[in-house]
């Protein structure tokens, strides 16, 4: 596999998992970055990305709701992911991130808002190559790991109000992460096809709040733009993503207004700079949203990725 396509696959899925069901509570800052293929032994990969997400529309089931407690919710998030090729078959990966803000603006007079910020969870993953078929250009990898909160304590506002789960940078709970990725290449046409699946389970935090199990499925179709004007450095990608989240629980009881099924379409444009730096821009567009109870839905989001691989 060429170096450019290795860089592409390394970053193409960088943001697949960073939008979850309930706009802000849905943001999973480190529980989902999957760079797909394993690294060669002794190779280091560093990825950083910035993501902006927002929502301003409530839903009841699959229909828009007139409920308007929150006029707008939004966040700004920066993540750093480091990977190391322990062997040619096994890669170790660490994910971390920081919320500059997770904000809810309430529809009140006078205006009122609540904001959380700080370090999110860390995720430590072991990624193993399950199938490498260079002749047919078909690759499968699997990974498993743990989610570790940077803090077990929930944040409070300046007015001594405990922040809602939706704006906490972490709810302070441990978890487990499992994923699988398939890559199929057709070099003659410049087409690539990718499929990813990721499952996240969660333990309860100190206040016995437990996030529902989340399942993420994504299909990608990519086209290497070989026209002379693009100078062989550009790739266009279309992602179709499905996100399923089960009900949260509080003290063992189901939280009615939690859990959802969503579909996103996400166009993506990638550029390889000087054969070493990978740059990517993504727009997340929700096309279907169905929620249990009444919840704030997801709006259009934006992501920018920078990636580089070092051969030690």
Describe what this molecule looks like in 3D.
The chain is mostly beta strands. It has one domain (about 5-310): Lipocalin, CATH 2.40.128. Helix content is about 5%, strand content about 60%. The protein contains 1 helix and 18 strands. The strands form 2 sheets. It has a 12-stranded antiparallel beta barrel with strand order 1-4-5-7-8-9-10-12-13-16-17-18. A 3-stranded antiparallel beta sheet has the order 11-14-15, with no helix packed on it. The two termini are about 20 Å apart.
Relevant terms:
312 residues; mainly beta; Lipocalin; twelve-stranded antiparallel β-barrel; three-stranded antiparallel β-sheet; globular
Mean pLDDT: 87
State the end-to-end CA separation: 19 Å
Task: Give the tally of structural domains.
Answer: 1
User: What is the CATH class?
Assistant: Mainly Beta
Main β-sheet description: 12 strands, antiparallel, barrel
């Amino acid at each position: 596999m060429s170096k450019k396509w290795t860089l592409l696959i390394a970053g193409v899925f960088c943001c697949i998992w960073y939008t979850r069901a309930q706009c802000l509570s849905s943001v999973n800052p480190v529980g989902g970055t999957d760079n797909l293929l394993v690294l060669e032994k002794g190779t280091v990969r560093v990825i950083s990305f910035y993501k902006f997400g927002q929502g301003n529309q409530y839903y009841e089931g699959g229909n828009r709701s007139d409920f308007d407690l929150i006029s707008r919710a939004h966040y700004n998030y920066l993540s750093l992911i480091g990977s190391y090729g322990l062997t040619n078959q096994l890669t170790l990966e660490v994910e971390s991130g920081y919320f500059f803000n997770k904000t809810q603006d309430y529809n009140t007079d006078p205006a009122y808002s609540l904001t959380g910020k700080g370090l999110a969870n860390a995720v430590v993953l072991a990624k193993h190559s399950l199938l490498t078929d260079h002749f047919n250009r078909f690759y499968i990898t699997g990974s498993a790991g743990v989610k570790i909160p940077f803090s077990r304590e929930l944040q409070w506002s300046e007015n001594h109000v405990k922040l809602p789960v939706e704006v906490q940078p972490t709810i302070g709970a441990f978890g487990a992460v499992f994923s699988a990725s398939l890559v199929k290449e057709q070099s003659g046409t410049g087409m690539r096809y990718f499929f990813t699946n990721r499952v996240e389970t969660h333990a309860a935090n100190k206040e016995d709040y437990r996030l529902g199990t989340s399942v993420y499925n994504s299909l990608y179709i990519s086209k290497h733009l070989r026209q002379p004007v693009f100078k062989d450095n550009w790739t266009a990608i279309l992602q179709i993503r499905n996100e399923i989240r089960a009900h949260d629980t509080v003290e063992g009881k189901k939280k009615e207004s939690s859990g959802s099924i969503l579909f996103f379409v996400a166009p993506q444009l990638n550029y390889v700079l000087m054969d070493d730096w990978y740059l990517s821009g993504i727009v997340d567009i929700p096309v279907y949203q169905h929620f249990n109870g009444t919840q704030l839905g997801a709006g259009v989001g934006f992501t920018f990725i920078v990636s580089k691989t070092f051969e030690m």
